[in-house]
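User: two proteins, same treatment. go.

Assistant:
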Amino acid sequence: MKVLIADDHPIVRKGIIQLMEDAYPQMKAFEVTSGNEALNRINEEDWDLIILDISMPGINGIEVLKQARKNGIKVPILILSMQAEEHYALRTLKAGASGFVSKESAGEELEKAITKIMKGKKYLSPKVYEIMAENIGEEPILFHNKLSDREMEVMTHIASGKTVSEIAQQLSLSVNTISTYRLRILEKLRLQNNAEITRYAFEFGLI
């Protein structure tokens, strides 16, 4: 099984490989550290499985996912992220992901998720299914659902206390671009400043 693992943290990549080696001894893993590099490798080579993080330098994992599907890539793609699964799991599935696993529960869920999506099925954690069941028939007005995938990513960085410059450096974007995203976030969430963004994010479990 030929697997592409896209994550900008080397420890995370090594951990994923270690978790998979026992279950898939014939696996050949290839590692990339940015969204741009991931998309290039996806388009240039054939893969049996692709594992993407959401937050990476350059284009994020959801954008890589969307572009890959747009380019006709039908390989199972698993999103493995630290982002709150109750807010990102359905968002990524709608974008074309085969499944979503939180990094916090990867030790228990990664093999199960891979086994399922390699059979052509979708994977969501029991936690997400429970949340979905609790909200059947409800349509709460959540302003953050109006945010784009990149805006959600920038918002979580702001809520974590990072400056515009730090976010720009991490995402390989300009300071002006991040500032523009920040203004859009404030407008869509109907907030006034970074402190209110942080409070909002904590209230809804986004970080």
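Protein 2:
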Amino acid sequence: MIGFLRVAFFALIGLSVLYWLLSLYSRSTERERLEKKWDAAPPEDAPDREAYIEAGMAKYEKSLRHKLIWLVYIVPMAVVAVIIYIVNAQ
């Protein structure tokens, strides 16, 4: 049991690092997309570039894409739980 807890602890650390890196990458690509969109054709209703980008990033924080990054935790844990169940059911 102690061995399982040790592996689970290090797995959660690894998943946390992966989540953090994926989150940073996703935010970076979204910011770059907003910057390119502004540079191509600045909208007339946006006051300036930084305000436009910050508004877009605030919108991104509420988006489904941002929330789907949590699957980094959920999918591996669900797979391990299913494997444990299948192995113990037989």
